[in-house]
Structure formats: structure tokens, C-alpha cells
Amino acid sequence: LLAQQLSLKRAQASRRSQGATALPVVGALTQAFLATLPFKLTGAQERVLEEIRADLKQAFPMQRLLQGDVGSGKTIVAALAATQAIDSGYQAALMAPTEILAEQHFRKVAGWLEPLGVKTAWLTGSLKKKEKEQANALIASGEAQLVIGTHALIQDTVQFAKLGLVIVDEQHRFGVAQRLTLRNKAEAGKIPHQLMMSATPIP
Q1: Environment class of 163 (CB within 10 Å of its CB; exposed 0-12, middle 13-18, buried 19+)
Q2: Contact 148, 121 (CB under 8 A)
Q3: What does the alpha-carbon distance between residue 153 and residue 133 come to, in Å, rounded to a whole number?
Q4: Which of the 8 DSSP states describes residue 186?
Q5: CA atoms of 140 and 159, how far apart (whole Å)
Q6: What is the pLDDT along the chain (203 residues), one digit of tens a residue?
């Protein structure tokens, strides 16, 4: 147990020595989004959100697992993390392991944020070539502030302008190399903050 704790501490220290873009602004978009919600956040959601907000303000990369049962409200917390990245002038990407799950996120999160002026992009393997090219152009130019999709997000053809936050749902269904590939799409010398979600906590 001691060896495990020391190795985890060493890994944490290594992460903190790496550079990330601080995302300090909880601004107009976040406030407008909160104002549209027909409910109040639970105490647990508020607590977790404050921890995530504090991490995103740091100049070293967040690497946090958000665990909760299906229906516990992980998606709303992830969306609020994304609005902090967008408020700070950066892009957020949400990757899910299946097209059905990715589409659920797109319908929900884009449905929340697009009416507030957020430009979103949708990218999956089943899109036609022209649709993929259009999505890639929006992502590369930075016009797409929120990008939602499947493994298609880690293809070589996908280049982000200013990737600040990576959100991975059902993170245990992705390989380490896949998560690293998405992480490496940030600006040179910078590592994006990472929020991984799961209803199935697997060590």
C-alpha cells in the first residue's frame, strides 16, 4: 500500500511539472447556462463542480475521474466544465465510446449550449467525407468551441485550434493510447485538462 501511494504521488508530481493552459474564467456563458436550468444542482454536484473549477484554474493539467451512477447528473457537471473552458477562450472536446452514446451527449449538451451562442461540431466515423471535412475545418479554425464525437476525434486529420479541456465518457472503454492521442492534440508544449467520467469505477 505504501509503494502504491508513493508511486501515485510520484505520478501526480510528474503531471504537475507539465504545462497546461489555465482556464480561469467562470463568465457570461456559464452564468447564462445556469440561469436556463429548470432545477438547482445537488449538493454533490456543487461540491464536485467547485473542485473541477479550482483545478481548471491551475497551470498544470487536471486529471480527474467523475464517478456516479447512471442518471446522477455527471453530464451537467461536464457541461459546466466545458463552459468554463469556452468562457476562457478555449475549445472543449467530449469523446464517447459509441456513436449512440456520443449522439445522446450531442443532443443534450448541444441542445443546452447552442441556444446560448456556442458553436458545436459533431464528428463520428459514419459521417460522409464532405461532412467530416466540414467538421474538421470548424475544429481546426477554432470556430467550433465544443466538439463531440467518438474515436473519430483522435484521427490524424483532426487538428484543434485551442484545445483546453478533454472530457472522456466511459473512460474505461478507451485504451490509454487513445486517451493520450486526444490529449496530444493541444497546443505544442501544453496538455489539456482532462475530465474522465464513468458509472463503472474500474481501477
Answers
A1: buried
A2: yes
A3: 12
A4: S
A5: 5
A6: 999 999 988 987 877 777 788 999 999 999 999 999 999 999 999 999 999 999 999 998 998 999 988 888 899 999 999 999 999 999 999 999 899 999 999 999 999 999 999 999 999 989 999 999 999 999 999 999 999 999 889 888 899 999 999 999 876 666 666 766 777 777 766 889 999 998 876 65
Closest CA to 93 of 164, 161, 23, 18: 164
Q: What angle do CA 193, 196, 197 make, to 5 degrees?
A: 145
Cβ–Cβ < 8 Å for 59, 2: no
Radius of gyration of the chain (CA): 16
Query: Would you state the cell numbers that stand for residue 68, as one nine-digit string?
Result: 456516479
DSSP string, 15-79: HHTS---------HHHHHHHHH-SSPPPHHHHHHHHHHHHHHTSSS--EEEEE--TTSSHHHHHH
Sheet holding 63-67, edge to edge: 63-67, 193-198, 163-169, 91-95, 146-149, 120-123
CB 58 within 8 A of CB 119: no
Give every CB contact of residue 85 below 8 A, 6+ residues apart in sequence: 23, 56, 91, 92, 164, 165, 193
* Three-class DSSP category at 153: helix
Question: Cell numbers of 78, please?
Answer: 461536464
The one-letter code for the residue type at 41 is L
If you write DSSP's letter for every residue of 157-202 in order, what string do you get? T---SSEEEEEEETGGGS-HHHHHHHHTTSSTT---EEEEEESS--
